Amino acid sequence: MITALREELRKARALTESGDSSGALCAIDRAMAELADTRMVSMDEAAELLGVKSPEALAPIMHGNGIPHEWRDGRPFVALSEVERVAGSAWVERMQELDRLHDLSWGFGCEPMTPEELEALEAGRPGRLPWELGQDSTDQLT
Predict the structure, then answer these.
(1) By residue range, what is the domain housing residue 48?
(2) d(CA 35, CA 29)
(3) Model pTM score
(4) Domain check: are 28 and 50 in the same one?
């Protein structure tokens, strides 16, 4: 969506520079139609516009913040005007900050653990994993 708008605006600029004002107006009108308040965008597009990386996390957060959406082909869509309205909200800024922190931490701990390190890790964690528990109701996470 953003790429298409940029291209329309570049066309309008080139048409203006060449003196074709009617052509420029048509290109501007097409770009403006893309920005109509009634335009619905997918969560992928909304995430891109808001500068967040996880459209999967965005949908429930938008729903939890009362942002109306509609389903199309099994996917949630939201009005472009709503995306614009929440762009500077605190929860969008928190999502952007979490994305930034995730990017910063990406390189930490990338080396695989040795068998000795894995053994030491397991020894340092008492009890059993939940899926190792039997069906007996007396089993406890100890």
Answers:
(1) 37-105
(2) 10
(3) 0.57
(4) no
